[in-house]
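Hi all, long-time lurker, first post. I run a small reading group and we've been trying to get comfortable going from sequence to structure in the token notation. Rather than ask abstract questions, I figured I'd post a concrete chain and ask someone more experienced to write out its structure so we can walk through it together at our next meeting. Sequence below, copied exactly:
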Amino acid sequence: MRRTRILTAVLALTAGLLTAGPLALAAPSAAEVKLAADTYTWKNARIDGGGFVPGIVFNRTEKNLAYARTDIGGAYRWQESTKTWTPLTDSVGWDRWGHTGVVSLASDSVDPNKVYAAVGTYTNSWDPGNGAVLRSGDRGASWQRADLPFKLGGNMPGRGMGERLAVDPNRNSVLYLGAPSGKGLWRSTDSGVTWSQVANFPNVGNYAQDPTDTSGYSSDNQGIVWVTFDESTGTAGNATRTIYVGVADKDNAVYRSTDAGATWSRVAGQPTGYLAHKGVLDAKNSYLYLPYSDKGGPYDGGKGQLWRYATATGTWTNISPVAEADTYYGFSGLTIDRQKPGTVMATAYSSWWPDTQLFRSTDSGGTWTKAWDYTSYPTRANRFTMDVSSSPWLTFGANPSPPEQSPKLGWMTESLEIDPFNSNRMMYGTGATVYGTENLTNWDSGSQFSIKPMVQGLEETAVLDLAAPPSGGAVLLSALGDIGGFRHTDLTKVPSMMFTSPNFTTTTSLDYAETNPGIVARVGDLDSGPHVAFSTDNGANWFAGTDPSGVSGGGTIAAASDGSRFVWSPAGTGVQYATGFGTSWSASSGIPAGAIVESDRVDAKTFYGFKSGKFYVSSDGGATFTASAATGLPAGDSVRFKALPATKGDVWLAGGATDGAYGLWHSTDGGTTFTKLSNVDQADTIGFGKAATGATYQTLYTSAKIGGVRGIFRSTDKGATWTRINDDTHQWGWTGAAITGDPRVYGRVYVSTNGRGVVYGESSDASGGGGTDPTPTPTPTPTPTPTSTGACAVTYKVTSEWSGGFQADVKLANTGTTAWSSWALGWSFPNGQTVSQLWNAEYTQSGAAVTAKNVNWNANVAAGSSVSFGFTGNWSGTNGKPAAFKLGDQSCTVA
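-- Answer (accepted) --
Happy to help. Here is the structure in token form:
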């Protein structure tokens, strides 16, 4: 189980791909770009989890309201009706990709509609932007942002400690935030709109994982790591008097204010030599519980203790469930049962082998029991059963020897929470998933409690490469960080296992033979063992190849169009080629080490390479390469290129940097010359999919900046015109690693993300209408007059609902025979609902009546096509659906 998270975005950052710029996170408005519009539905290719979940937060006053934070993949809200997680931060755009790292979450117990997220991925130079606190009044459906004058580290060492962000449970306009990097303690008194440093807080922290690390990653001061209010010391509407703050300082870990933050002092008598990962307060019994570790986590930790502080008397008690001498791990995850506050649980977060450990006490830490123990070594007795049938890959295909088991109870278990309204429900995060149980109290009765994944909807993989074969059982093949990759035969189902034999920790590249797609190759990283593998059955089964001398990492690989040979550019040595399945490799000549390699999709002996602004071509199966005379290509190595299926020598190249050549290039002569597309500002990926109806050229897809707008774009006319197919609510941070269309389904596109898994889009235009000729982009009149010259149909769907609020999607279809040049859809709410924010349309509301009008880029709706918009709203009592919709003066069919 890999102990680091993949840093895909960092590679792009160091190459200068990412630029700073403004981002409006409030319910998005339409992009100001004169491009054709299409309506896409976006989903995840299901993997379920796949990354570290360092924080789970339950609201203390509303049942079933819970949130989860991830280190690189954003924030999520629990949906009780479906037992799934809903992503909340997909609106984070390219220029602020760092805001997909969530260092802390806080749910307001006074007003449960309010939730806050402290965001930012790295505190060192890898992230060019500062951190921010996002605030939402509709449970994360939309956000507003308060920028901070320092960085936050959602993917930095110490990210499992917390929560660093907290809302005063008595006066909810007051919030505190613990900052890293010596920036101290911060406070907001206006519900997160503005922030200022608490000037008199006495300690900014001094602990760094590795002070000698010159990158700034491990050497950063982990700072202020948690804030806890003692709600019993305040009254409704008045600031809580007593506040505890945890500091990354082994000698001075806990501070307190008893005057609502006016003054602060070190808590006397506290233990030293350890870091307090959390501070959990039982106000009923006047106890503050603190799990300690000798390291900041989430991977490291060799010794630990548990302590209880009596807030009324100032007495400290060591309540460690095992003697310090017997620990080889630190403690971090800690929770109490709010229904039975004397019940406490804690985790041995850094116990990697043979398993993590959960401890439980029902007498405030006086005595403890373990989730598992030895009967006689190495035989284990478990108080739990595990069922991972919903995510079977969590076994990692392992068959370990006792006392290790598969699946594991977990690792990196820094988040652990008992539902404050349900003593039987507990959730905890691991390095790969969220586990949970709904019969936890079986532990106390002596019977086994059941653990299963509670992670559906939470997708947290970093995607490095994608391939969609034209035939065979595999719909999609993915190369992923940390868990290798998967073969999807059904995008709506979790695959049974990641790639194995061998099981790379990270797969860096994969390719299939275009005319023989049963043959697939992949390369990746592995601590020991081969770095290349092959399949002859479309990726269902694999066997290892042989590494040439010097290989240290995966690099990129290309398969000949017929599968007869391969060219591999691994890390650690130069480009290699082989006939057959890589049992013997030979060094390629004429191409530098580290080049990106791809194959021609027609000629089995033609391969291509790119390195440092130069394009290389081989016509002898990779034995020798010759540098092309092409000039004007990006000077750096942040480039992705692909050859078009079915046409020899047709190559598209995307990439570059803001301080040099940046865009999309096309070659029709095998890379001898390239032409830069003048209508593409910047491009970072390129992929191909099934051609539109009537077109002879495959559909192009790219993650790019076109017309001044960043997004995912599609062209059905060889790049002459482009359609933005995502919207501002679906941006997913950084999408620059890979993209591919589906060769079997027109309009379907697969998009890589750095922490939100594989996202795929389906076009509402299933027919793939449109031909090959470029069509001028319609320019709407300044104030278009709505027309309703054809029939219409409306689908109104409430996608999420909570106390006092909801989110809905509306799809308007043109079921007539003529196109619309503008549209205005009206309806009346039956129960007094009001729209709070609406995106992909403009709206007005008067009483119950609402009218939604097109924006400039989605005014034109062809016959047989549709357009969609969404909104958040408020309700009370009943949230009934509108019974009728009108387009102008015509009634629409209601689906």
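A couple of things your group might point at:
The chain has three domains: 47-275+367-453, 463-763, 792-894.
Confidence is low (pLDDT under 50) at residues 8-36, 769-789.
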